[in-house]
Design a protein that fits this description.
40% helix; globular; Nucleotide-diphossugar_trans; Spore Coat Polysaccharide Biosynthesis Protein SpsA, Chain A; membrane; five-stranded mixed sheet; disulfide bond
Length: 460
Amino acid sequence: MLKWTFKNARFTMRNVIIQCLLYGSLTLGIWTAIFSIYFHHNHVKNQEKKIQEKGNPLIWSLGKKLQTKHGSMQIPRPYVRVKRPNEDETTEQKSFLKLGKDFNYSDPELIHGYSKYGFNSIISKNLGNHRDVPDTRNKMCHKKQYPSNLPTASIVICFHNEEFNALFRTVSSVMTLTPQHILEEIILVDDMSEFDDLKEKLDYHLEIFRGKIKLIRNKKREGLIRARLIGASRASGDVLVFLDSHCEVNKVWLEPLLNAIAKDPRMVVCPLIDVIDYVTLEYQPSPIVRGAFNWYLQFKWDHVFSYEMDGPEGPTRPIRSPAMAGGIFAINRHYFNEIGQYDKGMNLWGGENLELSLRIWMCGGQLFILPCSRVGHIDKQHTANHAGILKALAYNNLRLVHTWLDEYKEQVFLRRPHLKYLAYGDISERVELRKQLGCKSFQWYLDTVFPELETSKRVS
């Protein structure tokens, strides 16, 4: 009996110990949860305080754009921007603060606008459908006279999920600042936009431009290159003028372009592209620059030497440009067809600007930037479907390399060896086009048009 009592007591004690351990663990867990909630609450409050003081971290990161400075003016950035070593970001890190201390950086609408459109959609909405921009031309441009019997222009503007007000300002600036007798039409190509305000709302607002607008809606997503070809196929003007869907043209912007093409139908011309700041949407003048590229096939803006602007025309003199940015240019419609339009085998966008630039120079044409023609352009800060764009860019660049660079394609592969093994489709039609046009070699292009590129022998 005593033995049984001892065993029972030991069993009871063991249960008590187990229960104590369980209750202790439970109590410890509860206190741990309470402390975690407390510290998380404090952390959130501190983060909110920082947001109020410095602005939302997401938006702040959007402020770190890169621009090359030239005096007090900004050089327009390439459409595909790749950071290069030693670029100074200090000034640009402050650019977002231009909105002022009273601006609500934690506003969800602001964040949503940047992620959706790549620029400040709140300010764009406040600016509305039209605004007056400063005349950024050199004063010598004001004295130039242009013939009244210039060729007519078809303006082709392609868009996909563009911010409504930016698109409409593009159209209304063209309508307001272009003489109607030289404006044949504006052709809008909607490349399968998904946003509601680009459907019935856009149709309704475009009614005020009835008679000058053609609106084409693609049945499937084509990408910029093929969308532009669709627009060009519907054009009836003497000259095709391609614009991006987030531009604002300046005073007397079209006459210099048409006048140059009237003198030489094989001349392709671009306006000087002014900067519309993506944060403030302030219209800022660009210095005189020319288009260029490196062996990575990255487009870049290049300074123009002062001696290139000597002579009676001074800073109004047309600038010989090895390459174009591609978003904004004018070309004789028949010449565009004659030299093979765009490479239809390219996807989405990217690389088509350099391919067309090489084709123009190597096949008997000329490419110039005209400082007396000014067009502002918003430098968007994001690209939707980034992976898809990079894939298309590599594919398109390879088509360019194997069609136009001859033995110099090894310079590209030396710097980007992975490209050597990627597919690029059938280029036989483009190779045949080069033969039919009697185009010169890439060596001729380096010697005659862009000797600065050949001197860069090292990998950089």
